[in-house]
Amino acid sequence: MRISDIFVGDRFRKDLGDLTSLIQSIREVGLLHPIVVSEKAELIAGYRRLRAFQVMGLLDIPVTVINLKDLRKGEVQENQIRKESKSFSFFAQA
C-alpha cells in the first residue's frame, strides 16, 4: 500500500523510541510483520514500522487489512497484550 494513502490518527503510543535498530533489521531481513490497517486505510498497528519505512524514503509498505470497528481498541491490544522480549537466549543456542 502507498504510505501516503495511510491515515494515522491520534496514537496511543506517543514515544516511538529510537528507530535505528528497526531500520537496520528491515534492511537486513525485510519487514517480517506487515502493518495493520482498516478497510479505510486507517492505521491500527505498526506505527514504528510505518515511520521506519518513511525514514528510509520508501513509498510502499506491506499491510494486512482487517475489518475492525474500534480502531483504538485494536491499537491498545497490539501494544499492551504482547509479551516484550527481554532476553534473546535462543541466539545462544545457534
What is the quaternary state of this protein?
Answer: single chain
Arrangement of strands in the largest sheet: 2-1-3
Helix count equals: 3
Q: Give the helices and strands as they follow along the chain.
A: HEEHEH
Q: What would the principal axes of the Cα set say about the shape?
A: globular
What's the CATH architecture? Alpha-Beta Complex
CATH fold group:
Conserved hypothetical protein from pyrococcus furiosus pfu- 392566-001, ParB domain
Let me know the largest β-sheet. Answer: 3 strands, mixed
Count all strands and give the number: 3
**What ranges have pLDDT less than 50 throughout 5 or more consecutive residues?**
none
The domain tally reads 1
Radius of gyration: 14 Å
Range of strand content: 5-15%
Average pLDDT metric: 83
Counting helices, strands and paired strands, the structural category is alpha+beta
Percent in helix: 25-40%
Q: Determine the N-to-C terminus distance.
A: 36 Å
Task: Please report the first level of CATH classification, the CATH class.
Answer: Alpha Beta
